[in-house]
Write a structure and sequence with these properties.
Blueprint (H helix, E strand, L loop, with lengths): L1 H6 L7 H8 L3 H11 L2 H11 L7 H35 L4 E2 L1 H6 L10 E4 L2 H13 L3 E2 L10 E2 L6 E4 L11 H5 L2 E2 L7 E2 L2 H15 L7 H12 L3 H13 L3 H15 L9 H16 L4 H16 L1 H11 L11 H9 L1 H36 L6 H4 L5
Parallel strand pairs: 2-5
Antiparallel strand pairs: 1-2, 3-4, 6-7
Helix pairs in contact: 3-5, 9-10, 9-11, 9-12, 10-12, 11-12, 13-14, 13-17, 14-15, 14-17, 16-17
Length: 388
């Protein structure tokens, strides 16, 4: 039903699918909206089609609350980016706003959980120092960005020095293609090709659990809508040459269908069912946000297969961390005996991740079973609106 709304916004879904949706409990809607993170756009479509008036009051309240939460993050991002833009303009820097941050500056924003900007390494360090002086705290980095900066009542800011997962510096053509964002002086955007390629790869390879998620499909569709045919051909060529060509192709195809007002075929039923299963269970048992995230990551790699498991282990366990351990004893060992400290970290991470995988194993089995049960019949997005 929701695939139909986003694919053909001017055409109403069938009465059968809509009646099934409005019979769902408020908790089911809450789970759907929290997982898909598309409430702002969905609320607009429901109002435009007249379906919002037929929502039961408890469901309408869930939709309104979730829309307020998403809008609050968008407004926070706009304020933070405006401040970064003013600082950059004064200092002659050209921060490039990435992904959801760029979308938040437009007329049709989407939910976001952090702000990503790209700068040359020397300017990135300078901006990080400015944020530190304003009271931000530094957390952990990865090969693509410096230590994320966090502050109370604000979204985390990740200052990227590259878009390459390996940490390789950007090619010169990327910097030559950036253009200023007219609505926010001091901020810049990637070229249409680089922006589309970045959001497709990020939602498919960096975060395989996001494959087919509405928020990311809409973000990719927005990026594709401003591309020329030659731009799309360039991105398609990059997709076909990539090691993850198959899921990249499926994600891009779904997003292109949405951008062309065509209901896309659902290519990620198993990913979606896994998402709902693990999120529903972790919320039901009251698991902390950090532990729930770790369980979800482990569940997805168990479901998606050996290649994702190898990539996950390399990223979460074997990754070389630039920052010292937050634990005093391990930090002291790392300082005096770097190799022993590194081995200790890997050992501790391995033990922790193995324990989480044990917890995730039955959840992954349940998700596979549910996916098998729903393989025949209605499209997955309709099936997920179920009456409890």
């Amino acid at each position: 039903m929701v695939l139909h709304l986003f694919g053909e916004p001017g055409i109403s879904p069938s009465p059968e699918s809509w009646n099934e949706a409005i019979r769902c409990a408020p908790d089911t809607w809450r789970l759907f909206l929290t997982a898909e993170r598309c409430t702002l756009r969905l609320e607009q479509l429901l109002r435009a089609s007249g379906h919002a008036d037929s929502l039961p009051s408890p469901v309408a309240r869930v939709l309104q609350q979730r829309a307020r939460d998403e809008l609050a993050r968008v407004l926070s991002a706009r304020t933070q980016l405006k401040n970064i833009g003013e600082t950059a303009h004064r200092l002659g820097m050209r921060p490039v706003v990435l992904k959801g941050g760029y979308c938040a500056l437009g007329d049709d924003p989407l939910d976001l959980s952090d702000i990503d900007v790209l700068l040359p390494r020397d300017q990135a360090a300078y901006l990080a120092a400015i944020l530190d002086a304003r009271g931000h705290e530094a957390t952990f980095s990865n090969p693509q960005h410096l230590r994320a900066r966090t502050a109370p009542q604000a979204l985390p800011v990740e200052i990227h020095v590259t878009l390459d997962p390996s940490g390789a510096p950007p090619e010169e053509r990327l910097w030559h293609g950036v253009t200023p964002i007219p609505s926010t002086p001091g901020l810049w955007r990637l070229s249409p090709v680089e922006h589309l390629w970045h959001v497709v790869r990020h939602a498919t390879v960096d975060h395989p659990s996001r494959r087919g998620r509405f928020r990311d499909l809409l973000l990719i569709a927005d990026a594709a809508s401003v591309c020329t045919s030659s731009d799309l051909a360039e991105v398609t060529t990059r997709v076909e040459r990539h090691a993850y060509a198959s899921p990249l192709r499926d994600v891009l195809t779904m997003a292109l269908d949405i951008s062309r007002n065509r209901p896309p075929a659902d290519r990620f039923r198993l990913v979606a069912i896994t998402h709902y299963t693990v999120r529903g269970l972790t919320q039901r048992v009251g698991m902390s946000q950090a532990k729930a995230r770790d369980v979800a990551e482990s569940t997805f790699v168990l479901v998606l297969g050996p290649r994702e498991r190898r990539a996950f282990w390399k990223q979460r366990v074997l990754q070389i961390t630039q920052e010292r351990s937050p634990y005093r004893f391990i930090a002291a060992v790392e300082e005096q005996f770097p190799r022993i400290g590194r081995a200790w970290r890997v050992l501790v991470r391995s033990a922790y991740r193995t324990g989480v995988l044990v917890i995730a194993l039955p959840i992954a089995g349940m998700a596979r079973y549910l996916a098998y049960r729903t393989q025949v019949g209605q499209p997955r997005r309709t099936r997920r609106f179920r009456t409890r």
